[in-house]
Amino acid sequence: MLNLAGTHFAFPRFNDQPAEPPAEYVHTDPYGNGAERQPQTATAEEQFWADQRRKEEQRRAQAQAQQRQTDFNDHNYTPRQPDNVVSMEGVRQSLAYQQPNQQTTTRRRSIEKDGQMVRKWDGGGSYYATWTIVNNYIDNGSVCDNHKRGSIDYRECRKGAKQFFKAECRGWGERLQQDREPSSELMKQRYCSAASSFSLMM
Q1: What DSSP assignment string belongs to the chain?
Q2: What is the pLDDT of residues 112-124, one digit of tens each?
């Protein structure tokens, strides 16, 4: 406040802080005669939704292009390509293809001939019967092949062999119960398999 010849003049008080600069005036020319405005950059959210709209448009375009065909003839049918195709390049790069000489363990085939005196099935005499054993299993077709195939002796021998196999199966089963030896188990397996699978008609 200033006193001058009895008159009081009031001056406005100013803050100590500087005044804010005026907002920048951006001139827009609606008619496009002036300088072009700088393009605004889209926000992350705007970019996201624009991307979603673009993907949806692409999906619709693909769906329209791939309408399900229900009417087929020789002119419009195109066979579908296989779904599961393995390239030969992948096969060639596999370890199994690169190492064909790897040794594989194969079971050796054991073949032996055996023969026993077998009683006739009616108990009135006996025949000598031979058979071939392959990996501890009796080859049913070879039983009594020491007799002429189709003869009476051949048929009677095979009837006796069937009874013999059943008796041996029981005997080796009882023996295995007592001694638990691997050899007893093998003999039981040999004769019990023959007793269950042997057919007179072979």
Answers
A1: -EEETTEEE--PPPPSSPPPPPPPP----TTS-SPPPPPPPPPHHHHHHHHHHHHHHHHHHHHHHTPPP----TTT--PPPPSS---HHHHHHSHHHH-TT-----PPPPEEEEEEEEE-TTSS-EEEEEEEEETTEE-GGGTTTTS-TTSHHHHHHHHHHHHHHHHHHHHHHHHHHHH--HHHHHHHHHHHHHHHH--TT-
A2: 999 999 988 777 7
